[in-house]
Design goal:
3-stranded antiparallel sheet, disordered N terminus
Length: 265
């Protein structure tokens, strides 16, 4: 993986007004996907985000694959599998060396599913997904509900910049603590999560093709932005980790399984 030096960007407006983020406002609502799952949403600056990880398995009526149902993948082997079903079952999770014992059943219900990039973006085949390079031109709905889309890396950068502005942080590297859920994460010395703008980032872990790891210590979220040239089989994902206040942008293989957070059009 190749680290991307991010310009941290991001949020404005929302629920709990902590001392470090005095300008946030309460504006929580909800959205329901085509499978009947309802998610809290939160307005942060000019953006409205899902405040929970997506758990949908069917493409909505306005999506590029409207009506399609995602086939199950178990995360084993190197095939281009659409998503990993067993992420809901605590006993099946491997910890990657760090499992958060304070994850409650309520947290488990909100960890959502893990999708490869083609499934998240609504491409029918790996070949179609491979053709997409760079910043997607417009909004790609993919597996998101009608009226919502997968955020680009530019939109993630805006979120991070907004949250810095709300919380009065002049430097980058603090956005993660303001966005992570106060509970549900593995503990680490010197790290205190604030969930200052009610984004409620929860650590669903991820999979690189063999097993689901790091539940409780990592949250990896796809963007709609792919790499180009010889790296076109990769796309950018944003990582929250249990032992850092930062958010780091990586480029991961599109066949890997990651979480999805949708952004309102």
């Amino acid at each position: 993986m190749k680290n991307l030096n991010l310009i941290m960007v991001a949020l404005a407006g929302v629920v709990m007004a902590f001392s470090a983020c005095k300008k946030s406002e309460s504006q929580n609502n909800s959205v329901t996907d085509i499978c009947g799952n309802t998610y809290k949403t939160v307005k942060i600056g000019t953006q409205t985000w899902m405040a929970e990880n997506l758990a949908c398995t069917k493409y909505d009526t306005e999506s590029e694959l409207a009506g399609g149902v995602i086939a199950e993948g178990d995360g084993k082997g190197s095939g281009f599998q659409p998503y990993y079903k067993d992420s809901r079952i605590k006993e099946k999770w491997t910890d990657g060396g760090k499992f958060a014992e304070n994850i409650t059943d309520e947290h488990l219900k909100k960890l959502g599913l893990l999708y490869n990039w083609a499934a998240a973006m609504g491409y029918a085949t790996a070949e179609e997904a491979w053709k997409q390079e760079g910043l997607y031109d417009g909004n790609r709905q993919g597996i998101c509900p009608n009226g919502w889309h997968l955020p680009s890396q530019v939109e993630w950068d805006l979120l991070e910049a907004t949250v810095r502005d709300i919380c009065g942080d002049a430097k980058t590297g603090t956005e993660g603590k303001h966005l992570k859920s106060k509970t549900g994460w593995a503990s680490s010395d010197g790290i205190t999560n604030e969930d200052a703008v009610s984004f409620c980032a929860l650590p669903a872990g991820g999979s690189d093709g063999s097993q689901i790891i790091a539940v409780g210590s990592y949250l990896q979220i796809w963007t709609s932005t792919a790499l180009t040239g010889k790296y076109q089989d990769e796309a950018y994902d944003d990582w929250f980790t249990y032992n850092s206040d930062d958010i780091v942008t990586f480029d991961s293989f599109k066949k890997n399984a990651r979480s999805v957070r949708c952004l309102k059009n």
